[in-house]
Amino acid sequence: MAAAAAAALRAWFWNERFWLPHNVTWADLAGEAGPPGSGLQYPRAAHVLSAFPLALGIFAVRLLFERFIAKPCAINLGIQDSGPHRAQPNAILEKVFTSITKSPDGKRLEGLSKQLDWDVRKIQRWFRHRRNQDKPTTLTKFCESMWRFTFYLSIFFYGIRFLWTAPWFWDTRQCWYNYPFQPLTSRLYYYYILELAFYWSLMFSQFTDIKRKDFLIMFVHHLATIGLITFSYMNNMVRVGTLVLCLHDASDFLLEAAKLANYAKYQRLCDAFFMLFGVVFIVTRLGIYPFWILNTTLFESWELIGPYPSWWLFNGLLVTLQVLHVIWSYLIIRTASKALVRGKVSKDDRSDVESSSEEEDVTSNSTKGIFSTSSNGSNRLNGHVAGSQWTGEE
């Protein structure tokens, strides 16, 4: 019974009429993609399994990179491995912090003030220091960003080098000629699986990386990215998939470069990189993506291969991605506008270390929205913004 149910489920999931164009079957894609003995083949679902051991390998390389390359670089830049000020031991406040709330409201602060005979400001500072002492150091954040910067830069230039000789880079209609009977070359396979493995490594490392307020959002984002890459691989839309991957990699390393400059306290360099990131992001996501990528997936593919069920799903996901591009671009433009007014890039509301200003009002944490202004005057950007993670220093 169980075997029959599993077979029925498998047949339903791999329904050819969903995955493939009309008159194409999985059997047609099972053989060699070229002349006998050529070794060429079409993408197969089993290929994506190789991303898992590769993801573990990438994670191991990252640990070595951060320890033996990124950390010495940070130390040479004067970034110290020292954490924020630790709160003085206090059993009553510790119990409130661990069991009730990490940010007590005004009424609770008054009660604690009477109970401990402490000034309210002193209690506010204690909670601020207690929250901060569990946060990672600037050195840790620098190492994490340097790893991401190195990978994003490397994979972007690999993608450009690969696509420069690919015919579909210059003529997107080549993505659909003779589809889905398009051979999988070794370079295309490595590019695709490496990107997939990297996002799987982010899924693993997210549980050990710096914890931020948008943990769940980023978890869903990574999961959706993995789903889109895997989906496009299994139905052999890898040609247009490489265009999407390379386009999105074009701005990511600039953002990480801005964060590195921020951690190293090179504010002007940080602002310059962020502005450059914003320009590249908006040009690629609001200009090139809709007029180059969506044009070929929606219109050229309709003309050359016609729609079928997985075609609709694939394009639905890409259009949804465009909606996110619009939202993130809006947030970036707002951040850049604030930066021009105030003279420096705003800090993220997901800040890993809170402001140490003695005048900070802890109860103001209830303020929500895209931007919130702390009492020390620093604006903060809330949300994904393509991974933006400006961190406030203590």
The dominant shape is elongated
Q: Biggest β-sheet: count, sense, barrel?
A: 3 strands, mixed
DSSP helix fraction: 55-70%
Query: Which structural class matches the secondary elements?
Result: mainly alpha
Average pLDDT:
84
Beta-strand content bin:
under 5%
Kindly give the count of domains: 2
Terminal Cα span: 62 Å
- The number of helical elements comes to 13
Radius of gyration: 25 Å
Number of DSSP strand runs: 3
Main sheet strand line-up? 1-3-2
Uncertain spans, ≥5 residues at pLDDT below 50?
348-394
Which H/E pattern describes the elements? HHHHHHHHHHHHHEEE
Secondary structure layout plus pairing:
Layout lengths: L1 H12 L2 H4 L31 H26 L14 H9 L6 H11 L3 H14 L4 H27 L2 H4 L15 H20 L9 H20 L3 H26 L3 H38 L4 H34 L4 E2 L22 E3 L5 E3 L13
Parallel strand pairs: 1-3
Antiparallel strand pairs: 2-3
Membrane topology: Multi-pass membrane protein
Subcellular location: Endoplasmic reticulum membrane; Nucleus
GO molecular function, one term: sphingosine N-acyltransferase activity
